[in-house]
Sequence to fold (348 residues):
Amino acid sequence: MRKFGIDLISWREFLYKERKYNSLINSLKKLKSILRGFYSINEVPFDFSKYNNKYFITDVENIKLSYLNYPNGRLLRDKLIFSLFFRNFCNVPEIYALIDNGKIYCVNKNYPEFSFDQMLHLLNEKILILKPRFGTSGQGVFKIQKLSQNEFKINNKHNSFDEFKEFILSLDDYIVVEFIQQGKFSEKFFQESTNTIRIATYFDQSTNSGKILYALMRFGRSKSAPVDNVGSGGIYSRIDLHTGKLDYAIELLERGKYRILDSHPETGVNIRGEFIPSWSKLKKEFTNLAGYIHPYIKFSGWDIILTDNGYYLIEGNNGPELYIQGPDKPLAIENNFIEFLRINNIRN
Fold:
């Protein structure tokens, strides 16, 4: 019964998004794509001439995957709960407070009376991040800095003290988070954003262990800063799981068009062929994490900041990014993951 309900909800959501974002069905090719469970126009078109469509996770399957962790998916969606839970396994940024309907609440025993004045005091020493408690795709994220007693920077905009205070007290359901300084490797590509790594993991019941489905690195640009999210204008490069080597980068354009890049389009720093530092250790950490939490979380995309001394886990996501499949990188091509889809009623 639950499978039927998820199937129904997933197809309804799929058809709603297809109608909202893509044009009317005006060709047999588009109709055929929709009936297979793929949007008629994808961010990066999949090469069905080279690969059978069964080797790609469909858009409908992707929606089903986002329900797979129910009811424990809130551990990933709620960034406050995420921090409190996953600090048991990884380094996570400190959360100082919750801003709810303009009021500031304590969520950290080390800051029992957190207030606007306490935030000002912290800003004397630190840069802070403000992010929606349930936000996605890097939307609504603010990097705040104190430049002087009467000058504050919110992302790239300068504000007076009164403007800054009014902005802070206008926020609703936001968390106040420690800013993590990325390491030299990540920073060299583009300094105005934090350039993160996404590692997608699942629990393989056949081997009783965590597995990595894919990994990528994202790079911010002027139009996406201070975040690197592809939906905000950032670019991404797939990571070879065996070696940690970065592939070519992809910039998403409009209506299923994309551009392949070997280097960052603004800084000119080479991307293709670079190696992620300490990749073997990072890979082991997250296959282990997938194994530890599999009773609660079966599938997740982890967002990671590399530092010079290790990493910080900043977010978890219930669904994969399907653009990673690109024209020639199908994700449902390994038997272990195909079996995972079947065991969990994602694929028949």
